[in-house]
């Protein structure tokens, strides 16, 4: 792995900008977007991006990234802006259930040197990232030595691949998830959920389709009981909206959504009498109604008095 120059970075940015705005050949993925889910659509997001590699000729290399989105995005691979077909036996492309995508070259040549780009797309949008591969040639003597070592290394890898796999995997499943919530501005808000799965899923929180990043007022916690929490303190009007929690592991992903409504902070205001009590006279034995109108925040508590003595609420006649 190595860092590329600013010129190479600008070149890759130019390729990504162009690819995200031009038509592409149909993806070789089995993913179909004929039936689009309602209420849970999320544009593709890179949970892990491609890196840049420098290798010697004949060495293997693997580009890896991780993509999440709802519906599951289609992926397209490119080299120097030209789409790579899945029928290409030299570049082997794979995709796992948790959204991890990889492009593997078993034995690199000088022709493999260049910029590799992956683009993810669903009905909500497109996103892409790139990695640069620099292939360096070796002297003839070194190439012969490396070829022998590579052959022995592959033999050992093949032996390991033949070992039986005992581990079992389970898709993420939410055991506990909150429903729509109403919370007050300026207070603490806590969204709790509990998820099962093997290997243990990773959780991503989204607000209106954008990732919620940890900062001074947003924290993600995991308790010993396995409960995941998103803590917001203090809550502001910007925190209102549709939250989606996406759980992913190598077998797949699951998600739930909820609507968070933020009640505006109360403005305190002393009681004000808008309409005062009026003097009145009635014959003895007739009913009488005395009225006034008062406003205040929070709503005031009222006390009635007659000749400066408090009138108890228990009296049935008044």
TrEMBL record:
Chain coiled-coil ranges: none
Pfam families in the cross-refs: I-set
SMART domains to which the protein is assigned, alphabetical: IG, IGc2
MF terms in GO: actin binding; protein kinase activity
SUPFAM superfamilies, A to Z: Immunoglobulin
Keyword Cytoplasm part of the UniProt annotation: yes
Every Ig-like domain range: 44-128, 172-261, 271-318
Keywords for the protein's UniProt record, in alphabetical order: Actin-binding, Cytoplasm, Disulfide bond, Immunoglobulin domain, Phosphoprotein, Repeat
A GO cellular-component term linked to this record: Z disc
Tree of life domain: Eukaryota
Matches recorded under InterPro entries: Ig-like_dom, Ig-like_dom_sf, Ig-like_fold, Ig_I-set, Ig_sub, Ig_sub2
Gene3D superfamilies: Immunoglobulins
Subcellular location: Cytoplasm, Myofibril, Sarcomere, Z line
Family as reported in the entry's similarity comment: Belongs to the myotilin/palladin family.
Name the record gives this protein: Myopalladin-like
The gene coding this protein: LOC102814827
């Amino acid at each position: 792995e190595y860092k590329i120059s600013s010129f190479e970075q600008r070149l890759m940015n130019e390729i990504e900008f162009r690819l995200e705005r031009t038509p592409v050949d149909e993806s070789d993925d089995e993913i179909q977007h004929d039936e689009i889910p309602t209420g849970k659509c999320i544009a593709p997001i890179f949970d892990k991006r491609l890196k840049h590699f420098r290798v010697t000729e004949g060495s293997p290399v693997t580009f890896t990234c991780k993509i999440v989105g709802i519906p599951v995005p289609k992926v397209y691979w490119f080299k120097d802006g030209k789409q790579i077909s899945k029928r290409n036996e030299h570049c082997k492309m794979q995709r796992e259930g948790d959204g991890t995508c990889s492009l593997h070259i078993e034995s690199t040549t000088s022709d493999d040197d260049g910029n590799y780009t992956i683009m993810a797309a669903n009905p909500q949008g497109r996103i892409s990232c790139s990695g640069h591969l620099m292939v360096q040639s070796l002297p003839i003597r070194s190439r012969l030595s490396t070829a022998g070592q590579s052959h022995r290394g592959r033999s050992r890898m093949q032996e390991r691949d033949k070992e039986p796999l005992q581990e079992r995997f389970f898709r993420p499943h939410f055991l506990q998830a909150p429903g729509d919530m109403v919370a007050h501005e300026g207070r603490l808000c806590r969204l709790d959920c509990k998820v099962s799965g093997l290997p243990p899923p990773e959780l991503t929180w989204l607000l209106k389709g954008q990732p919620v990043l940890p900062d001074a007022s947003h924290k993600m916690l995991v308790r010993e009981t396995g409960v995941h929490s998103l803590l917001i303190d203090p809550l502001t009007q910007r925190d209102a909206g549709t939250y989606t929690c996406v759980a992913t592991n190598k077998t797949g992903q699951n998600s739930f959504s909820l609507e968070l409504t933020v009640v505006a902070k109360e403005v305190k205001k002393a009681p004000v009498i808008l309409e005062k009590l009026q003097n009145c006279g009635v014959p003895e034995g007739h009913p009488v109604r005395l009225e006034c109108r008062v406003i205040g925040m929070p709503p005031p508590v009222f006390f009635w008095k007659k000749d400066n003595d408090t009138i108890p609420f228990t009296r049935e006649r008044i």
